[in-house]
Amino acid sequence: MKQSTVPNTTLFHRLTIPHFGHDDVVTLGLPGRVFSTGVLYGSLSLFISILHNVFLLYYVETFVSVYKIDKISFWVGETVFLIWNSVNDPLFGWLSDRSFLSSPQSGSQVTSSEVVLKRLKALSTNGPLFALSFLAFWVAWARPGLQFLLCLCLYDGFLTMVDLHHSALLADLAVSAADRTRLNFHCSVFSALGSFSVFLSYSFWDKEDFYLFRLFCVTLASFSVLGFFIVSRMLRHSFQQMACPRKDETLMHKEISVGNSPSTQPEKPVTVRLYLKQLSRHRNFKWFVSMNLIQVFHCHFNNNFFPLFLEHLLSDNISASTGSILLGISYIAPHLNNMYFLTLCQRYGVYHVIRWLFMVKLGLSVVMVLAGADHIYLLCIFIASNRVFTEGTCKLLKLVISDLVDEDFVVNRRQQATSALLFGMVALLTKPGQTFAPLIGTWLLCVYTGYDIFEREPVKDSLVSVPDVVSGSGTPPLRLGCFYLLVFVPIACALLQLAAWSQFTLHGRKLQGIKTLRQSAQHGHLIDVKAI
């Protein structure tokens, strides 16, 4: 097969794992059809996002308006889903990575190549199953309450498996910040493309006639199944081709290493209790989780109250089409903007870029407070930019978690980095922010305005009980309360995040030192071979 040549500036120039170098390409066996490793890895984000965006937008409306689920069944399903959604991340992470935590003998260490192959095999299996579980929502096959519960848990289980292994590959395929940034860049490109499924869905959505929407969902799922199956197999095949020529050499070095180390003792297995104890001593992990908990809260607060802000702050002053444009921008722009943020990460480092985004969020909110609620165009810009910058920050955090994987590997002297498990522990400790967002938001709204979104009746003794709150402006209490929520929540979040982020030390020289130690440790364990 004719080998293609790509410029030296493309993916992976300093990998410590003997597979995808910066000149590596994967072919489909078709003339002119050549794809880089970064494109293939990023395309997995497309197969996830085209389904997940449609799921988020329509699953509640489908069960409430089409299947007529009752209120008790709905809340029971959501409660069970909340528990399962929090628990399955660390559970699946532990099941995936427990074999990497320790090896009984030095000679039986799991190699980096085996780790990557295991993740790709998991994606080739769980990816198509995730797409098939997506289809279970759109056909009534059981009582609405039972179907709602089973569909949510089944879908989220496969989504977690896919997301954990895909995220873990970011830490396993590359160690250098530049390489991981390039991988994340490709994910942002394909995630942005996947967001267009939301716009296409509007043409097929009809609560009265569900047939066309079902066909649309079947088409999306079929595309996703084929994508996961083909891309994961292509990555595995290419990886095996690169790794196999070095297999004999690696085994030979292992035998020499064992033969020259008669004092080598079996390692003590790492239990759940020991792992949690190690994690509790991981200072940067704790500060990151504190910051990320607030970030998850703010992201979901924006999602939950975006329609409320449009309705009570802008609906009387903008057209419906302008509102839909703002909604569309809020879905697409974070992915596009992330491409620019990633170029800044390559130049200044992800730590500094995230800190600047917190400062921008704080600065824009203060400006909005000073300007007031009557500047409609400024409000439009602020509502859109607030969500764009907040979501943009979320999409950079995988890079930080990957760095934490490196630090955990070095500090605890692991045989292999437990990438999926660490991503799962972060999810476990930060997902409560999803629940806090609507609870705290609705409570604040009720306190300041007396407006209860459930009862729709004013509450007495609210702090804002008369229209003329702002000197003669005649601003209605509900509108003013929404404005307070819109500007003061980002201010509070930004201040808390800046305080927590200032305690995070895994950046600059320390981060470079950790990466050097991880590479050296892997070479010392004879897991890695000369970089390509």
UniProtKB/TrEMBL annotation:
Going by the UniProt record, its keywords in alphabetical order are:
Membrane, Transmembrane, Transmembrane helix
Q: Where are the transmembrane segments?
A: 39-60, 183-205, 211-231, 362-384, 483-501
Q: Which Pfam families match?
A: MFS_2
InterPro entries linked: TMEM180 (IPR040035)
Source organism superkingdom = Eukaryota
PANTHER family in the record: TRANSMEMBRANE PROTEIN 180 (PTHR28658)
**Protein name (Swiss-Prot/TrEMBL):** Transmembrane protein 180
